[in-house]
Every structure is written in C-alpha cells, then in structure tokens.
Amino acid sequence: MKQLPEHGPCFVCGTANPHSMGARWYVLDDGTIFTEVTLDTHQQGPPGHLHGGAAAALLDEAMGSAVWTAGYMVLAANLNVDYRRPVPLGVPVKITAKLVDKSGRKLYTRAELTLPDGQVAVKANGLFVEAPHLFTSGENQFANLLPDA
Prior knowledge:
Layout: E1 2-3, E2 26-27, E3 33-38, H1 52-69, E4 74-83, E5 92-103, E6 106-114, E7 120-130
Antiparallel strand pairs: 1-2, 2-3, 3-5, 4-7, 5-6, 6-7
C-alpha cells in the first residue's frame, strides 16, 4: 500500500485547504484506491448526516485517482451515484474505487462508501475520458506510484 500525493487546495484531500474533508488516499497492490475518513458538520446535509454532494465528491476523487494511478490523464465525463443509506457524521467511513474497464479513450470506474458495520451506503460508477492535452506539465502526478514503479 502506497500513499498518493495530495494536491494542495483540493477540498476533498488538500492539506493547504482548511476546509478539506481530510481524505488521505492510498493505492493497494491490486490498483484499488482506499481511504478511511471521519466527516463532521462541515460536510453536513440533513442534520447529523453527510451531504450527498460531499459523498459524490469523495467518490469522484477516488475514481479519478484510480484512473490516474493506472497511468491515464483524464477528466470525469459522467458520474452516477446511488445513495442507499444515510451516512452519519462522526464515524469512520471507508471509500474504495477501482478502474474496471477501458475502451478507446473511455475509462470506466466503480466506487463505494462503506459504513463501519460494512453496509454500502453510497455506490458510484464513473466514466472518465483521456485528455492529456489539458494538463500543462504533460506528466501524470501518480506515475511514481504505479505498480511497476
């Protein structure tokens, strides 16, 4: 398991952002992206529970990281989020994501947010599209974390 680099002002994981959700992402040997985070009232939607947009942002970031870690410079093209259970604040939740398929420039991902009792509270599928021309450095920030590195 290797920790992924964080990106400064990101509101999901950036240490330079005082309002960040504090996610610290890791890549497992099989390419799965993983974090465990405890969310608070800064991410509240319904009283005492996680805002749906905050859940979607966590899953989006995880799925994007899975694709970048696999070596592709991408942008999200479509995210489908399935809210199955309310997510209480103040308890550790797990987020996992994985690249599941590639077809041409399209990359397909899956992610889950799991409660402490193991129940999946939020699931997502993502479509990401390769767009290396939009990244000025032309370098994948996760290249040194690829399994072959």
